[in-house]
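U., I forgot to send this yesterday:
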Amino acid sequence: MFKYRNININYIRYGNKSGIPLVFLHGWGQNIQMMKMIGDHFTDCDVVIIDLPGHGESDEPREIWSLDEITDMVHELLKSLDISSPVMIGHSFGGKISLIYASKYEVNKLILFGSPFKRKKNPDSFKVKLLKKAKSLPGMGKISEFAKKHMGSTDYRNASPIMRDILVKHVNEDITDEVKKIKCPTIIIWGDHDEAVPLEDAYELSSYIKDSAVIVYDGCTHYAYLERAGQTVNIINSFIEGDRDE
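Result:
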């Protein structure tokens, strides 16, 4: 556990501490396990996966944290582990935190899965779609059953008032100006059937990050990175291959 502003933040660290630091941040209503499925393929790297505040085994904040405050918490945790210039890998809410992180701090590379960055015209619709998709994951077989066990623990309706307010802050906050500051190489992975964050957002996001590319998974949803986990692992491997040789 990492203590930050008097709350406990849960994380796991495994693999090779001398390897490339890979930092995984999960989506809203999820936990470490949703990223560990990918992280477990990189034991030659220094893998860190964090339960974001109010998720998994991490405490809820005692007041409403902004996205900047959550990002700063991640940075302080990584500093405590002597990790600098990591590869940030984030899904959805975790991707938005990763984007802010890369705009403020040194990042080697950035990998995003269905990451929102604009204010939604209809925030309630976004929240409903996000939570419905988090509980369906069609066509994923065993992965679907696994995912259902590790999602929705902080579902909007059942969440505490503080977590509800943080979710509203997340959905309403536009970070386009921050995104435009990002300089690191970036891969953007998206499902063409993503109903929570539409595919057009992926291309707009890429237009703001000079050294970026969009990879579309046909027939996949907001959880494309898991629906084609093998392809995701191969893409990450290819993206970081040059860093292994340094």
